[in-house]
């Protein structure tokens, strides 16, 4: 089972409180439970209050602290590099005939697993990239755990 991180843009009330009503999901990515656990271990998420509507009741969300977004992206990129190195994929140019005699580094299930991990990690890196490049100074745009 996966959970997701969303890059969400909220409206604010006159006092600067986040409002759920007109929020917009900019990007939504799923993460594996193991990646989620590692990310949360490295960067405990912070609670923020969000108003259901102007003057209405509030609820708490878990999100990344804006001050840790660049550091988290860098850590994720390092995890990506480590994953590539650990997978020991052999990218040599082989002719079709050679592929039968060449020892297989990974079995088919291993390749599928590596691709899945790759996708989770690169999608999350991209979400952080968008936050940094387009919304780094916008406190109304948060990376939220859903």
Number of separate strands: 5
- Characterize the main sheet: 5 strands, mixed, barrel
Helix content: 40-55%
Count of folded domains: 1
Q: What ranges have pLDDT less than 50 throughout 5 or more consecutive residues?
A: 93-98
Tell me, briefly, the overall form.
elongated
Strand content: 25-35%
Distance between the termini: 13 Å
What structural category arises from helix and sheet content?
A: alpha+beta
Arithmetic mean pLDDT? 86
Radius of gyration: 20 Å
Number of helices: 4
Describe the 3D structure.
With 146 residues, the protein is an alpha+beta fold. The chain has one domain. It is 43% helix and 28% strand. The chain is built from four helices and five strands; from the N terminus they run ββαββαααβ. A five-stranded mixed β-barrel has the order 1-2-3-4-5. The chain starts with a strand and ends with a strand.
């Amino acid at each position: 089972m996966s959970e997701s991180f969303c890059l969400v843009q909220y409206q604010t009330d006159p006092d600067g409180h986040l409002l759920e009503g007109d929020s917009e999901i900019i990007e939504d990515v799923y993460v594996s439970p193991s990646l989620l656990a590692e990310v949360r271990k490295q960067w405990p998420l912070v609670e923020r209050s969000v108003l259901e509507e102007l003057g209405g009741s509030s609820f708490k969300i878990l999100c990344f602290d804006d001050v840790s977004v660049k550091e988290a992206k860098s850590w994720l990129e390092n995890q990506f590099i480590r994953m590539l190195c650990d997978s020991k994929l052999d990218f040599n140019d082989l002719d079709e005939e050679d592929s039968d005699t060449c020892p297989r580094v990974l079995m088919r299930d291993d390749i599928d697993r590596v691709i899945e991990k790759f996708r989770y990690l690169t999608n999350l890196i991209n979400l952080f990239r968008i936050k940094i490049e387009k919304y780094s100074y916008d406190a109304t745009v948060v990376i939220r755990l859903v």
